[in-house]
Specification:
Radius of gyration: 22 Å
Structural class: alpha+beta
Order of helices and strands: HEHEEHHHHEEEHEHHHHE
Strand content: 5-15%
Number of helices: 11
Shape: globular
Helix content: 40-55%
Distance between the termini: 19 Å
Largest sheet: 8 strands, mixed
């Protein structure tokens, strides 16, 4: 029942329409390109338009041993009964789980829609591990999550444990609940509290926490991504009477829909037809044109692989 979760991208368009398809209203995601409190604060220009939380993607340290205390902040075991926190019980679900860790803690500010509201109420009395199992076994959540995975003709249902050589990436959430800043990571035993934090203080309080986390990595590590969950910017544009802003937001949504449609499409048939046409063209030229083309392609591929090896790329990428 809990199998079949695919990897999704850390992309504002993916997360925005994932929330929308789950039934929540008037929420979207914006990618933050710098760790600057002012940049995050710009996402909330009115008191009734808060930044609900952020979702952080980072390279997970697979060789790190579990600890009784987090490296930053402290475990708040009692908070698990006062907010929505679920243990992650299955691989590849962490993106949607981080999204829900923010969204389901904002039921007094966001219209969750009937299906998510029912899920929130159903799991309210559960401990974190049972909440995680309920989330993993939710056909609704799993099907919506998987609808944003990239289409691939090569399906491998087998899952394996990551090794220290693998690049494994993980999503976690940060949000303000009950005037405290919480880090919600389903791979941890409890929510991690980082001190007092109101909605207004959230940009100033969360950025230093993120900066300290990033500083634990080598200086050359730049593979991070940060998404902010905010109120639908189209509504804010309408309230401001800014037609140009509204038009730009509508165009952005159209672009997201197009990108999401491409993710679902399998291009193998198209590529096969293109390749067949090219081969037929080379064969018609005669005089060894086809063989020369193949040899040139082999040389270029070998050169690219050698260059990738020098940069340390090409490893398999997994999601925690």
């Amino acid at each position: 029942m809990s199998g079949g979760w695919n990897t999704i991208e850390s992309d504002a368009g993916v997360f925005t329409y994932l929330v929308d398809n789950l039934g929540a209203k008037d929420v979207q995601f914006e990618e933050l390109i710098s760790l600057d409190p002012e940049n995050l604060r710009q996402q909330s220009w009115k008191p009734n338009s808060p930044v609900y939380g952020v979702i952080f993607l980072f390279k997970y340290p697979t060789g790190e041993k579990p600890s009784q205390q987090p490296k930053d902040g402290s475990f708040d075991y009692e908070a698990a009964d006062q907010l929505f926190f679920a243990a992650q019980t299955i691989q590849n679900a962490c993106g949607t789980q981080a999204l829900l860790s923010v969204l389901l803690n904002k039921e007094d500010q966001v219209d969750l829609g009937p299906r998510l509201r029912e899920f929130r109420e159903f799991t309210e009395a559960f401990p974190a591990d049972l909440r995680g199992e309920a989330l993993s076994n939710s056909e609704l959540i799993r099907d919506v999550h998987n609808s944003f995975a990239r289409s691939s003709p090569f399906i491998n249902d087998a899952q394996r444990l990551a090794t220290e050589e693998d690049d494994v990436y993980h999503f976690i959430a940060y949000t303000s609940v009950n005037n405290k800043l919480y880090e919600l990571d389903g791979l941890q035993p409890a929510p991690i509290v980082h001190g007092e934090c109101s909605f207004d203080d959230f940009p100033d309080k969360v950025i230093p926490v993120l900066q300290r986390r990033i500083e634990r990595y080598p200086p050359h590590e730049i593979r991070f991504n940060l998404l902010a969950m905010v109120r639908d910017l189209r509504l804010r544009a309408k309230e401001a009477g800014d037609q140009e802003w509204l038009y730009n937001e509508e165009q952005k949504r159209n672009g997201w829909q197009w990108d999401n449609a491409l993710r679902r499409h399998n291009f193998v048939g198209f590529v096969g037809e293109v390749l067949r046409g090219v081969v037929e063209s080379k064969l018609r030229k005669g005089h060894g044109a086809y063989d020369k083309w193949v040899e040139n392609a082999k040389k270029k591929t070998k050169a690219r692989m050698e260059e990738r090896g020098k940069r340390g790329g090409g490893e398999e990428t997994l999601e925690a």
